[in-house]
Design brief:
The protein is globular. The chain is 43% helix and 16% strand. The relative contact order is 0.15. Helix 2 packs antiparallel against helix 10, helix 4 runs parallel beside helix 8 and helix 12 packs parallel to helix 14. The strands form two sheets. Strands 2-1-3-4-5 form a five-stranded parallel sheet, with helices on both faces. A five-stranded parallel sheet has the order 7-6-8-9-10, with helices on both faces. By secondary structure, it is an alpha/beta fold. It has two domains: 189 residues, Glucose-6-phosphate isomerase like protein, domain 1 (Rossmann fold); 148 residues, Rossmann fold (3-Layer(aba) Sandwich).
Length: 363
């Protein structure tokens, strides 16, 4: 087996993994709806570790968009170690309104392996407090997480040999999107997700050698990934993938936050990658244009390049999905995964086995 060949296959197999994941979700949707109907959900908490913490951030944004209840994303370790459930109960000094904070908390716990220690300990803390039901999102149906949760959404065909998550991340994110659509009774949005595998195949054909060209360019020393709303967690995952696989300096920011200090790091050896939304598009384009003016090279991932008028990014990847910013999220990541793969190879690293890392963190 050549170095990096698992990662190469896993990135390229995502259209098939997505189709299978959506088919299995559809087959179990009635059971999911029955499970959700048994709880009066007043809050949702989404947890994960590493990649799945960033997945949780974007999943929480989706859930907030579609639901009328508070939604938070936390690293699993924060729920385990610092949860208010660990504190001594204190009688409140005032009464809450009936529907303000009432109802159970739905814990959505995300873990590729389903055996990450922090996530399992957070789940145990949550269940000990009797705070509400637990829904697992994982790739392993027989894992401790899936077995201990009240309900599990599983993407078994997205399991991986590689340490760095690629198809597992995007497939579990698809499950989070499908969960969000189900909770919001958005059947149309759920149907739209079925367009994503074909859209990715078209994107792979169009993008050509660009990821290899950018990945092999070691004149780039710093990479910044910018994304807002539902795309911030995905930009953060792009940052993490770049660090894990290529041992490169990489950071992620909300687009307009980048002007508040981080742009001091921009020079001609910088690549700034914009995950462009619909809602913030105009302002996000201004940020990218400003960074190009400071010497950075700019890569824009955008639904349609018609948004460029008097200015254009150095590199443009058109998603052409026909979907909204709340639906097309998984399409932003494969191009960056390819870029990280080629950068790792150019640096003489093994993408399958990142430095100092194991596939599962067990304490």
């Amino acid at each position: 087996m050549e170095r990096g060949s698992y990662t190469w296959h896993e990135i390229g197999s995502q259209p098939a993994a997505w189709r299978s994941t959506l088919e299995k979700f559809t087959a179990g949707r009635d059971a999911l709806q029955e499970f959700l109907a048994t709880s009066a959900v007043g809050e949702v908490v989404v947890i994960g570790c590493g990649s799945t913490h960033y997945l949780a951030q974007s999943a929480a944004a989706l859930l907030r968009h579609g639901l009328a209840v508070p939604v938070r994303a936390l690293p699993a370790s924060e729920l385990w170690l610092f949860s208010p459930m660990a504190a001594v109960p204190v009688e409140p000094c005032f009464d809450h309104e009936k529907n303000n904070g009432s109802g159970e908390t739905l814990l959505v716990a995300v873990s590729r392996s389903g055996s990450t220690t922090e996530t399992l300990r957070a789940l145990a803390r949550f269940q000990e407090a009797g705070a509400g039901p637990v829904l697992a999102v994982t790739c392993y149906p027989d894992s401790p997480l899936a077995q201990r949760a009240d309900f599990a959404l599983v993407a078994p065909d997205a399991q991986e040999h590689s340490v760095a998550q690629t198809r597992s991340f995007t497939s579990m994110f698809l499950l989070a999107q499908a969960l969000s659509a189900t909770l919001a009774c958005d059947d149309e949005g759920l149907e739209h997700l079925r367009l994503l595998p074909d859209a990715l195949e078209g994107l792979i054909d169009r993008v050509g050698s660009l990821p290899q060209e950018l990945g092999a360019d070691l004149d780039v020393e710093r990479l910044f990934f910018l994304g807002g709303g539902p795309l911030y967690g995905l930009a953060s995952e792009a940052m993490l993938k770049t660090k894990e696989m290529t041992l490169s300096y990489a950071e992620a920011y909300y687009p307009l936050e980048f002007r508040h200090g981080p742009m001091s790091m921009v020079d001609e050896r910088t690549l700034v990658v914009g995950f462009l939304s619909d809602t913030g598009l105009e302002q996000e384009l201004h940020v990218l244009k400003d960074m190009q003016g400071l010497g950075a090279r700019v890569l824009a991932l955008v639904e349609d390049d018609a948004v460029f008028a008097d200015w254009r990014a150095d590199y443009v990847v058109e998603l052409h999905s026909g979907l909204s910013e709340w639906e097309r999220g998984p399409l932003y990541l494969p191009v960056i995964q390819w870029l990280a793969y080629h950068r790792a190879v150019a640096k003489g690293l093994n993408p399958d086995r990142p430095h100092n890392l194991e596939a599962v963190v067990e304490l």
